[in-house]
Design brief:
There is one protein chain. By secondary structure, the chain is mostly helical. The chain has a single domain (about 5-165), classed as Hypothetical protein af1432 (Orthogonal Bundle), CATH 1.10.3210. Helix content is about 60%, strand content about 0%. The chain contains nine helices and no strands. Helix 6 packs parallel to helix 7. The longest helix is centred in the middle third of the chain and has 19 residues, at about 85-100. The chain is globular. Bound molecules: fe (ii) ion (2 copies). One fe (ii) ion binds near residues 39, 68, 69 and 141.
Length: about 170
């Protein structure tokens, strides 16, 4: 299902979806039956819609939302138990920085996009978001996690399901 807003959203995140580190998220399970690629698309799309509605930087929200959980390891294995909740934004940030600096067609992360990734675990973590867009992504992350945990995937993927196959 496609419309004007999904077309614009897709144009913002398409280059990211074609990058190997982003594709890898499909193989890491997340909340409920979702994987991290689905979760990231859900968070990015919800953040994009909210930011667009309120006149905020929806491009940064979509990009930050796509990259906020780019930590690329199985968070359920014993190695990361306990620390994951607070340490994964930093790992995602480093991976996102590397991805953006390597890919010629993707701009380096802005201060806003860095803040979105690094602070997305607030208020569980003490690092308070500096921008309104970061707060939106914090909120979208929690809402999407709850909906994914309740297996509301079909409702959430109505407008973005086609992006998984990109
Ligand atoms: Fe996260
Ligand atoms: Fe997340």
């Amino acid at each position: 299902m496609s419309n004007k807003s999904t077309d614009e959203f897709e144009s913002i995140v398409l280059d990211l979806l074609n990058e190997d580190p982003v594709k890898k998220m499909e193989y890491i399970s997340c909340h409920g039956s979702a994987n991290f690629l689905e979760h990231s698309i859900n968070v990015a799309y919800m953040s994009y819609r909210i930011c667009k509605r309120f006149g905020l930087d929806y491009r940064a929200a979509a990009k930050g939302g796509m990259l906020h959980d780019l930590f690329l390891y199985d968070w359920r294995d014993g190695e990361h138990n306990g620390r994951h909740c607070f340490s994964h934004p930093q790992v995602a940030y480093k991976n996102a920085m590397r991805l953006c600096s390597k890919a010629d067609h993707i701009d380096d992360l802005t201060d806003l996009e860095k803040d979105i990734i690094l602070k997305h675990m607030w208020p569980l973590s003490a690092k308070r978001p500096r921008y309104r867009e970061s707060l939106v992504v914090c909120l979208a992350d929690k809402m999407c996690a709850a909906m994914e945990s309740l297996h509301m995937k079909r409702i959430m993927r109505k407008r973005t399901a086609h992006l998984i196959a990109v």
